[in-house]
Every structure is written in C-alpha cells, then in structure tokens.
Write a structure and sequence with these properties.
Its main location: secreted. Keywords: Secreted, Signal. This is C1q domain-containing protein. The chain is mostly beta strands and 162 residues long. Helices cover 11% and strands 43% of the residues. It has 2 domains: 1-32, no CATH class; 33-161, Jelly Rolls (Sandwich). The chain contains 2 helices and 12 strands. A hairpin with a 4-residue loop joins strand 4 and strand 5 (74-76). The mean pLDDT is 88. It binds 2-acetamido-2-deoxy-beta-D-glucopyranose (NAG). 2-acetamido-2-deoxy-beta-D-glucopyranose binds at residues 104, 130, 132-134.
Length: 162
C-alpha cells in the first residue's frame, strides 16, 4: 500500500496528473502559467492615419505570460489552448469606431460603434488558439474612423482551458 502511495505521489509531482486531487502546484511552475491580459486605450480622440492600422491599447493592467504588446497592440499567444477574447469599442461624437478582431490574417469578428457620442460595442470570441497566433483589432478600411480613448475602449483575453 505504501509503495502504491509513493508511486502515486511521484507520478503526481512529475506529471501533474493528480494536481486537482492533491494540489501539488504544478500549474504555477514552468510553462504551465495561464496567460491573461487587459489593456485600455488612452490616446483620445483616437484617430487614424492608416486605414488598416492596428489599434493600440496603451495602458496595460494585466499581462500574465507577457503575450500582449502595448507598442504594437498585438496579443501573441504564449501557449496553445482555448481563450476568451474580449474587446469593447467606443465612439466619439460624429464618427464611427469600426475595427475587426483578427487572428493572423483571419477575421474573427466585426466591431462597430456608431456615430453618436459614447456609443459602444462589445466584441468577443471563444477560440482555440495556437502558440504564436497574433490577435489584434484592425481599423476597418477608413481614416475617417475615430475611437474613444481615455480608458473607454479596451481589449482583454484569458486562457480558459488546454
Ligand atoms: C499565425 O502566424 C504565426 C506566425 O506569425 C504562426 O506561427 C501560426 O501558426 C499562425 N496561426 C495560424 C492559425 O495560421
């Protein structure tokens, strides 16, 4: 019996199989971190000189796993898994804020906040992603778009499951 228990403990500490039963803490070690990020748009109003510009959410609140890059606005997936991605876009008076959510070159979703001041739109995706996939919001083809910064528009995502 003792031998069985010892074997079980060795297996648990080396393979994480029994982590949920005896909590050996293997989720917090090595590459088993659970990536999560949240960032807010600061520049306001957020105007565009490029019709296909990637939106940057400059103020980073959370960046577990260091996947989000505030200099480019891109979340580079640190680890394979199921992820919940969220974005909220706000408009300013008289202009649309229109941007799509992308994974690499594939569109995941459309975001659009209308022309009245402080309209907002939430975009979400629950998707299986691969390490190094690039998740970002891209302005939808016009330099006349304008978004509401000043902590209104935001971008977040988190690892849900392997
Ligand atoms: C996305 O691009 C990266 C390289 O930039 C690549 O490693 C990854 O496999 C691509 N993902 C998909 C789903 O094509």
């Amino acid at each position: 019996m003792l031998k069985v228990i010892l074997t079980y403990l060795i297996l648990a500490t080396t393979s994480c199989i029994a982590d949920q039963i005896i909590n050996v803490g293997c989720e917090s070690t090595g590459n088993k971190i659970r990536p999560a990020f949240h960032a807010s748009m600061i520049r306001h109003p957020y105007t565009f000189s490029d019709p296909n510009e990637i939106l940057r959410f400059e103020r980073v609140w959370t960046n577990i796993g260091e996947g989000y890059h505030s200099d480019t606005g891109v979340f580079v997936v640190p680890r394979d898994g199921l992820y919940q991605i969220m974005g909220t876009l706000w408009s300013t008076g008289g202009k649309n804020c229109a941007a799509s959510l992308f994974n690499n070159d594939s569109r995941l979703n459309y975001g659009h906040a209308g022309t009245e001041n402080a309209q907002s739109n939430t975009v979400h995706a629950l998707v299986i992603l691969k390490k190094n996939d690039r998740i970002y919001f891209k302005n939808r083809g016009s330099t006349s778009h304008q978004c509401h910064g000043n902590y209104h528009s935001e971008f977040s995502g988190w690892f849900v499951h392997e």
